[in-house]
Amino acid sequence: MHEQFFYVKSQNFSGLSAFSAKMTDFSYDKHAHEEYSIGVTCSGRQDFYSQGAHHKSNAGNIIFFNPEQVHDGHAGAGSPMEYQMLYIPEHLFLNLSKSFSVVVKDKLHIKQSLFQDNILRDQVLSFFQLMSNCGQYSCVEEEYALLRIVQSIVRIGGSGTSALSPQSRKDALLIRAKDFILENLQNKITVDEIANAANISKYHFIRMFSEQFGMTPHQYVLASRINRCKAALEYGEKAIDVANKFGFSDVSHLNRKFKNTFGITPTQYQKQLST
User: Fold this and answer.
1) How big, in percent rounded to 5, are the helix, strand and coil portions of the chain?
2) Measured on CA atoms in the order 247, 253, 258, 264, is the torsion positive or negative?
3) Domain range spanning residue 216?
4) Mean pLDDT across the stretch 115-142?
5) How far is CA 119 from CA 30, 146, 271, in A?
6) Same domain membership, residue 136 and residue 44
7) Taking a C-beta distance cutoff of 8 angstroms, is the pair 93, 154 a contact?
8) 23 and 133 inside one domain
9) Are 5 and 21 in contact (CB under 8 A)?
């Protein structure tokens, strides 16, 4: 099977997008999305590592990632695999969840990353089909379909759906480090500077950060820059300008890292969004 990756963005909700992939040999680098990510393995087997465990998603299974939940992914058993994914902005997901009496302040965390549910599976696949019919659906239709998906996620989550627990001192320090990173993505930053911002010694910081977030500070900086590049490309910025803005040595460097995360180059991504 030839590797294929296809993205489509919502015409009605900023940041809402859908994605489909057909792959055999391609492997995603370890990364995280800023949105809630929910997908369906359509055929084959999808293997991924997240939250300290290896998972195997067979055809028909649901995959779910919270914002900033680190994961990788590849086709399992050496066989072709197809899947479809929705990326729902955090604020949109949380606003819709309030319709179902889910009380949270600013975060909602789903503990499960892999589960089965035929209703949700069909809803996700139908929503992808809806978004693929560019311009042939109304805002009301899209919002209603999305509302049903969020309702199913809340139903399935049950006790696994929760607001994040209060921060410990360790959490607060690491969040301070993440905030420093996100505020300085356009600057050249070192691990020493990040550790200083969190007021933690360098090597203790690296260990704590890796244990908490599932990737090293360097990997997190790169993943965050890739996500910012993706957002800038969606607003029409040129790849060469995006590469310079977010600290890549040149467009080729950005192309390699972007493709390792999203399966296609920045130019290919922009072209798909414009069709």
Assistant:
1) 45, 20, 30
2) positive
3) 169-274
4) 90
5) 30, 13, 33
6) yes
7) no
8) yes
9) yes
Over residues 26-31, the mean pLDDT reads 94
DSSP state of 51: T
> Has residue 109 got a pLDDT over 90?
no
* Whether 141 and 202 share a structural domain: no
Ordered alpha helix ranges (H), the chain: 90-97, 118-132, 139-157, 169-183, 191-198, 202-213, 217-234, 239-245, 251-262, 266-274
Q: Confidence class of residue 2 from pLDDT cuts 50, 70 and 90?
A: confident
In a shared domain, residues 12 and 113: yes
Sign of CA dihedral 160, 165, 170, 174: positive
Q: What is the pLDDT of residue 135?
A: 64
Q: Residue 75: count other Cβ atoms within 10 Å of its Cβ.
A: 23
Phi, psi of 200 (to 5 degrees): -130, 145
| Strand partners for 62 | 40, 115
CA–CA separation, 86 and 77 (whole Å): 25
**259-265: Cβ within 8 A, 24+ apart:** 260/28, 260/29, 261/28, 261/29, 261/31, 261/223, 261/226, 262/5, 262/7, 262/226, 262/230, 263/3, 263/5, 263/21, 263/23, 263/26, 263/28, 264/5, 264/7, 265/239
Q: How many domains does the chain have?
A: 2
Of 36, 155, 159, 55, which Cα lies nearest the Cα of 107?
36
pLDDT category of residue 212 using cuts at 50, 70 and 90: confident
